[in-house]
Specification:
With about 270 residues, the protein is an alpha/beta fold. The chain contains seven helices and 15 strands. The strands form three sheets. A six-stranded mixed sheet has the order 3-6-9-12-14-15.
Length: about 270
């Protein structure tokens, strides 16, 4: 029992840089308190002490602002940050190393008996205000953006945002490929690695995907020419010259003062 408590406190230090001391976490973290009380109520629930289990759950909600039904199954190293407004339904299942932020709901979409709440796999992170509804599955390592409304399964490693939630990043394959292409052409942009979808990032991703497709096509053509005995593709492609593009080595344009001093520019 005490080993589990130590493990729960350690996971707070791993995921919350504001945590300072063992005693502070033990006395001032409502997510930790809600988890301890849930473990007690869950044991009572499984031993058919239903009323007492619900009473402890209600007491936990009263002092922490977090409502976890005693029937919910919670894994190890579960962390609720801030916690106010979190609701976890009766048939919800939460695996190890899951993180929830305040205002998250793991709720149902029907009044039918049986499984009606979501299942979160290992390492899932659910952002503030998100609603994950129905007997759906969120895959291992998936990320749910703040205020998203999820009503369909989310694949492992994916990132989902919006209302209704849509997957904007499918695993890690696209990101690695885009980073490799960006490095190849000497390009570095925030859009390559940002998780949030915005017009600039979307344009950068589309450009890098297009360049990757062109690169694959050219390599295929070169292989075909080599098969015909041509050495045309043996020519080395010159490296990108930042000076030709009026960029410095960091990819930034020159200051306005430098532009004014170029040949042919008029000065007052």
């Amino acid at each position: 029992m005490f080993e589990r408590i130590k493990e729960d406190i350690k996971c707070v230090f791993d995921r919350d840089p504001a945590a300072r001391t063992f005693f502070e976490v033990l006395t001032n973290y409502p997510g930790f308190h809600a988890l301890l009380l849930h473990r007690l109520s869950h044991r009572l629930w499984n031993r058919n002490w239903k009323w007492l289990a619900r009473t402890i759950s209600s007491f936990s909600r009263w002092i922490t602002g977090i409502e976890i039904h005693p029937g919910a199954v919670i894994g190890r190293r579960f962390f609720i940050d801030h916690g106010m407004g979190v609701v976890i339904g009766e048939t919800a299942e939460v695996a190890d190393d899951v993180t929830l932020y305040h205002g998250v709901t793991l709720g149902g979409t029907s009044w039918n008996k049986g499984k009606r709440h979501p299942t979160l796999a290992k390492g899932v992170v659910v952002g503030a205000g998100a609603k994950v509804l129905g007997p759906i599955e969120v895959g291992e390592g998936a990320r749910i953006g703040s205020n998203a409304v999820v009503t369909k399964d989310i694949p492992a490693g994916a990132t989902a945002v919006g209302i209704p939630a849509r997957v904007i990043l499918q695993g890690d394959t696209d990101g690695k490929r885009r980073q490799a292409m960006a490095a190849k052409i000497g390009f570095d942009a925030y859009g390559v690695s940002r998780d949030m979808e915005d017009p600039v990032a979307k344009a950068m991703h589309a450009m890098l995907d297009h360049l990757h497709a062109v690169d694959v096509k050219i390599n295929g053509m070169c292989d075909a020419l080599k098969g015909l005995g041509s050495d045309y593709c043996g020519q080395k492609i010159p490296e990108l010259n930042y000076q030709d593009l009026e960029l410095d080595e960091a990819g930034n344009p020159p200051p306005e003062s430098d532009k004014d001093s170029t040949p042919g520019s008029a000065k007052p």
